Amino acid sequence: MAHHDLQTVSHECGDCPIRHRAVCARCETDELQRLEQIKYYRSYQAGQTVIWSGDRMDFVASVVTGIATLTQTMEDGRRQMVGLLLPSDFVGRPGRPTAAYDVTATTDLVMCCFRKKPFEDLMSTTPHVAQRLLEMTLDELDAAREWMLLLGRKTAREKIASLLAIIARRDAHLKLKSAKGAIVFDLPLTREEMADYLGLTLETVSRQVSALKRDGVIELEGKRHVIVPDFDRLIEETGDDSDGGYLV
Amino acid sequence: MAHHDLQTVSHECGDCPIRHRAVCARCETDELQRLEQIKYYRSYQAGQTVIWSGDRMDFVASVVTGIATLTQTMEDGRRQMVGLLLPSDFVGRPGRPTAAYDVTATTDLVMCCFRKKPFEDLMSTTPHVAQRLLEMTLDELDAAREWMLLLGRKTAREKIASLLAIIARRDAHLKLKSAKGAIVFDLPLTREEMADYLGLTLETVSRQVSALKRDGVIELEGKRHVIVPDFDRLIEETGDDSDGGYLV
DNA sequence: CGCAGAATTGATACATCTCAAGCTGGGTGG
DNA sequence: CCACCCAGCTTGAGATGTATCAATTCTGCG
């Protein structure tokens, strides 16, 4: 079941779907050739754990297709998602031997993995990978800080609206459509995963989704398929600055 | 009042107090000389705003002495602190023209500023500044993610204990003492700033501090001077893994 | 001395959690 | 083909933690 995904992914960096956004985005042809030599693909089925926090990790990777999550868990089981990894996002930290978070595939997932040691060597000898990684890390830091505002200060309804807006925007971005007027997308997360991301319980997520539906902010077909008739209306519900001209 | 601070700070990178931890940590002598040419010091009094979010920012900087905060504010005034900047921490983002957050001095503050354009040139022509900045940014990202767990899942009491533990640890680190046994430090934040950091109200902060005091986890002399008789006891109150061998 | 900002404490309101009961839709096996 | 099952989801009722509103009380300082 997972194998056919693998087969649809090109093994040539030249026509890789994430070539222009991933950590390799700025590489010259000679750098790409070095990357080709140390890379390999791995696929995971939806629900599978990619890595457990604390495990030894001898590769770093880019998400090629599918979605993965980064989560932290407390001793008593409380969970907080700290990252949502979409195609082109980077996994792992050069120079660190073990994983700091649980990484889980929420959809079928294909990753382009690089053996860590050679990747680190490449980083220290050529500038472009490190430059791009710095850029991506700074973007992630901004995203994390925006999420801190959400977790610390937003109401449950604002949290849900914010998550829907982010998914809608990213989805529109992947499909190269503008995020205006009516938007349609599928939720890549269960209610429980949404709760883990938003710092809520799954019951509260369910209630607030129902409320947004009742108020006409969204429409649902089944549990996962979302229709946003008026994107600006959704943005109003997030509590954010309306001009919210995302830095992306 | 602020000026004498400036005078106590060496203008020679060679004996700068943050030389070994800041963005310049890995620089060779020739790189340091280039940095010397584009740097200048600025000082701020406690309470002063360094930059407003959205303002044009034509420098980046390192905190030399004192403490600054990064905060985000919603239209209706809800505030969330998203960063606490201690000596050696970096402010600003190369390649971005405007500030993304409000930066405020919570104590008297001295910053070592670099004109942005020359700094960016330096980054693209020599590797050591960019390498160090990547490392620092990855550390900040980890800290932000740890804070996401705190904001999303911890109780008010756990939040306070966590903040105290972090300040105690950083303080011990600056003083080169081990964070074991009895610890003494001064809170660099008001109750309101603590609240903004923890996603609470100042009243809840006050109540939980009183509760920790009542339960003997901490002792207070005045409002700001904190004594932690048993650091392990404090750690238990944070809800974190007790082995919490910080990656620092 | 007395003022102003900071902090504490109290009483009450309310948002979200918790516990619990049902619902829904897709898959499985008889 | 139907009955059943089960994970995912919804909804309800009540408990609880934190926010809100409102007085005081500290503390440092002119």
Question: Strands, helices and their partners?
Answer:
The structure is a homodimer of 248-residue chains.
Chain A: H1 3-8, H2 29-38, E1 39-44, E2 49-51, E3 59-65, E4 68-73, E5 79-85, E6 90-91, E7 102-105, E8 109-115, H3 116-125, H4 127-153, H5 156-174, E9 183-186, H6 191-198, H7 202-214, E10 219-221, E11 225-228, H8 231-238
Antiparallel strand pairs in A: 1-8, 2-7, 3-6, 3-8, 4-5, 4-7, 9-11, 10-11
Helix pairs in contact in A: 3-4, 5-7, 5-8, 6-7
The structure holds a DNA duplex (30 and 30 nucleotides).
Q: What do these coordinates show?
A:
- 2 copies of one chain form a homodimer.
- With 248 residues, the first copy, chain A, is an alpha+beta fold.
- Chain A has 2 domains: 7-145, Jelly Rolls (Sandwich), CATH 2.60.120.10; 155-238, Winged helix-like DNA-binding domain superfamily/Winged helix DNA-binding domain (Arc Repressor Mutant, subunit A, Orthogonal Bundle).
- In chain A, 41% of the residues lie in helices and 21% in strands.
- The first copy, chain A, has helices at residues 3-8, 29-38, 116-125, 127-153, 156-174, 191-198, 202-214, 231-238, and strands spanning 39-44, 49-51, 59-65, 68-73, 79-85, 90-91, 102-105, 109-115, 183-186, 219-221, 225-228.
- Chain A has a 4-stranded antiparallel beta sheet. In chain A, strands 2-7-4-5 form a 4-stranded antiparallel beta sheet. A 3-stranded antiparallel beta sheet of chain A has the order 9-11-10, with helices on one face.
- In chain A, β4 (68-73) and β5 (79-85) form a beta hairpin.
- In chain A, α3 (116-125) packs across α4 (127-153) and α5 (156-174) crosses α8.
- The longest helix of chain A has 27 residues, at 127-153.
- The two termini of chain A are 35 Å apart.
- Residues 1-7 and 244-248 of chain A have low confidence and may be disordered.
- At the A-B interface, β5 and α4 of A face β5 and α4 of B.
- Chain B binds a DNA duplex (30 and 30 nucleotides) through α7.
